[in-house]
Design goal:
31% of the residues lie in helices and 30% in strands. By secondary structure, it is α/β, with parallel strands linked by helices. Strand 7, helix 4 and strand 8 form a beta-alpha-beta unit.
Length: 214
Amino acid sequence: MLTIALPKGALLKDTIQLFQAVGLDFSLFLDGKTRQLQITDPTGQARALLVRAQDVPVYVEYGQAQLGVVGYDVLREKKPQVAQLADLGFGGCRLSVAVPAASGYQSSLELPPHGRVASKFVHCARDYFRQLDLPVEIIPLSGSVELGPITGMSEAIVDLVSTGRTLQENGLVEIDVLFQSTAHLIAHPLSYRIDAVAINHWVEKIRGLQLAAV
């Protein structure tokens, strides 16, 4: 039976709607009363695992799931050994550098050498500033990175931005965008080769939906 890793959080509703459109129903995960972390589609064709978004590529890489849906930001940060099959187009956001509006900085290159940057995306941030040849200290945080500049712990942050409202409400502005991110369909490379027919059946259905929407 095909196993699919679904991401908790912002991408879940759109992901479930995507699979419903190709004939797989995992909508029980949207029921606030359920505590199940694994459910089987009523047709018996596939089962889904509900996991943290950051863990989706881990389950796929280690073969516990043959397919998964995850944001491109997670793929860039974790660099898992998975096959990227399709950009699904939803869950759009961007990974950006932001600073206090009062700082006067207008680009990352204006940040002071050996300054501090707070981020959940440690590897992405480090790679970005390395490409700029600007030495900075990356401070790893797991939440509320906006507090870094507010408390004076860092000159800047690297974080996901969707509407920009959170930045604005905390007196921060974007000065650079590292990359755009949307939800991606990924697969376990070995499973994709060995069981290509079964997996491709669903992949082609999803791709067909994308083409029909264009």
